[in-house]
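Researcher: Good morning. I'm working through a list of sequences from a screen, and I'd like to move beyond sequence-only analysis. For each chain I'm collecting a predicted structure so we can compare shapes side by side. This is the next one on the list. No need for commentary yet; just the structure.
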Amino acid sequence: VQLVESGGGLVQPGGSLRLSCAASGFTFSRYHVRWYRQAPGKEREFVASISSPLGITNYADSVKGRFTISRDNAKNTVYLQMNSLIPEDTAEYYCNAKQATVDYWGQGTQVTVSS
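Model: Good morning. Structure tokens for this chain:
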């Protein structure tokens, strides 16, 4: 079982990044998927989620209108499109897949927004 995040990096304020969360070893399409982030010295916080099977999305107020979560079950992948990035978005971003009591986490990908 694996969840692997990718797509992080250094970007200037106002820029964009697309994070990917690729799953293997389980029936990904049946799982609700969430993105979380954790900045240095802060608690991990919810960013966005997408449900299964209806694909209903939900966002933290801090990213609403700037971030978009989507999923491609054929590719076992969830995406987080991040636009209009601001320095406060700097954090390690984690993917989480959950169904009932089963809970998987990725290792994280670093996003740094700085000029």
